[in-house]
Amino acid sequence: MMQFYKYFLMCTNDTGNFFYIWSMKIKESKAETLFDQDKLVPGQSIDCVIIGFENNELKVLIQKLMNLNKWVVPGGFIFKDEGMDHAAIRILKERTGIDLPFLEQFKTFGDTDRRKKAESMKVYKSFNISGPALDWLQQRFITTGYLSLVDINKCSIQSDSLSDESKWVSLDKIPQLLFDHNQIVDSAIDYLKNQLNYLPVGIEMLPKKFTIKELQNLYESILKKPLDRGNFQRKILKLDILVRHEKHLAGGAHKAPFLYSFDHEKYNKLLEQGFGFNS
Amino acid sequence: MMQFYKYFLMCTNDTGNFFYIWSMKIKESKAETLFDQDKLVPGQSIDCVIIGFENNELKVLIQKLMNLNKWVVPGGFIFKDEGMDHAAIRILKERTGIDLPFLEQFKTFGDTDRRKKAESMKVYKSFNISGPALDWLQQRFITTGYLSLVDINKCSIQSDSLSDESKWVSLDKIPQLLFDHNQIVDSAIDYLKNQLNYLPVGIEMLPKKFTIKELQNLYESILKKPLDRGNFQRKILKLDILVRHEKHLAGGAHKAPFLYSFDHEKYNKLLEQGFGFNS
DNA sequence: ACAAAAGTGTTTATAATACACCCATGA
DNA sequence: TCATGGGTGTATTATAAACACTTTTGT
User: Fold this and answer.
1) What CATH number does the domain located at A207-273 have?
2) Which residues, at least 6 apart from A164, have a Cβ–Cβ distance to it below 8 Å?
């Protein structure tokens, strides 16, 4: 589905520090930034659960670690002079190409056994990492999970130096992930469901113009239960956050639905107080 | 109001590492644990916002740093072999004496400027800390905020080696706190309000037996708005989580209210789905 | 013309809201 | 006995839920 150049760079400097390329535009074939562990906050990482909506299904972006059959949620480290939220935005931009993402911290994971030593050893050995770099990577890590809601069609997924494949998988087909990443994803989904009334799911995950049926499908996917068609329509229209456009005539043998877009100003104002679809 | 022995121990070992006593039972006048920075997760701390309810007011526990006129929310560090939640429970126990506290992570704070260098320098200088220990404490810190709900009357507040005064202050009289601790407290209050329907506020913050009026006052304090007396009573009774006891005859010149206690089993079952007082 | 899905309408049940009434208690 | 706040009742309104009817489209 996706085409990209595999590009990989890894080296160790004379002090034994671990250097690696953390971001590169594959198409331009050049590294954007090079840094070493001295510039990173130790023991602290960020993991991004990126959720999109495609073919009436919620999907999460996962990446396969290079040379290994291990899937992970995209993550990264924090620069010592960089705020945590900023780091999350940076990491996300590298993976999706999206510039102003919706991004929200949802939980911090700090169990001692969240990264099994044996498991991480296998990973880092496969990258030929050893010495101080290995020590640094093998230290106890606490990670903060960020939830991002995106429009899959706007994402040009890029791989990076550590992974050789990226894909969107529907929530009920997530394979076993590295470390505690399954738990991190589950936690993000819970957060999405619980905070639904305060999250801009429609504006972030749907294309600019959409039908009410599509919006309903999105809500149903998140809530994991069917909603009444008529009631949904009436309720969402009553909120006065949608702008009606021309009819969408592409569909099947049935009445053509209207296309709508969000009135961003009204939508955001309403989000502050929250609005609900519990039924 | 509270009586305690001031007890303070601080030293530096031959490698320049910073040793300090992080916990002691003041009454028993002995240190429970001694540790140094080599055993701590670097750059990661925990801050506890402990909320109680007294005289119809929500109150938060703050402590004054020894030798300084600086107030903070009780916090601490994490052992390298200790889970983050466990660290929070440990820290909380030292400060309140409560054994099985309600404790929940609410947010992680990772801005680069959350600890002003100048401010922290003043603090650590006042403790005569220098060398590697100072470096360790001056590093970039990311902190995870934990919310704890307690019954103030069950807390025997203990001070520790770093502070010489602890007190409960009502939420609208919080003084200026060190670093970003005001922001941390505000964030905790927001969380409490938002998650109200899923938090065991009644069970944690009220005494075993209480009147419905007291419970209503608690909810009103959190929501910051008055609730209808009759409706509140009917609604809470309909939930079938209260056990009615004898009448409370201490009050004023009026009909004596019943005392109630929670049916913990039913209460906890109901909490999972959440129950609301939005009005 | 017909099936399918959109758009709209209607009825019923449930919950929120406001406020009224009577009761028990201590001063 | 009277002021005070507790317990309960009721009427009104708003929202949720279920489902029926009509309209528009492609085949």
Assistant:
1) 1.10.10.10
2) A6, A64, A65, A66, A67
